[in-house]
Amino acid sequence: MAVKIHAADVDLADEEYESLLREAASLTGGKVTVENFRFEKDDEDDEDDGCGTLYFERNGKELSFVVGQMSNDYLDMCAAQAAIEALSPDDDPRSFRCVDHGPDYRPKSIDDVMILATAEQREGLLQHLGITFEEPW
Known about the structure:
This protein has helices at about 15-25, 75-85, 120-130; strands spanning about 1-5, 35-40, 50-60, 60-70, 95-100, 110-115. The chain is of the alpha+beta class. The strands form two sheets. A three-stranded antiparallel beta sheet has the order 1-6-5. The protein has a three-stranded antiparallel beta sheet with strand order 2-3-4, covered by helices on one side. Strand 3 and strand 4 form a beta hairpin. The relative contact order is 0.21.
């Protein structure tokens, strides 16, 4: 089970996080819910400003993530990864981890893929397909 974080241009990044996190939460089979999203921009008067704080509730508890995207046209890939990792189910051996694309991929526009899997499943992906994973945030 996986969710993709889009690296290329999006309509409005501050609105894209909600659908991304809802998609990730849906992979948990109801163990994790997300609601009450809001994005507080550092400069509310600038529609193009991508910096601010993302707030949402995970199973009723509010979480927040600082977002430092270059503009409101692109997601902050690191903030998106950290927010999705926070959706890993409690009392469940599965957790969200990002596929490791290697040391030179960040400057390129490559989508990140977050996999919800157990440590054993990740090991199987490594052994059979050569897929490695980044360390969690």
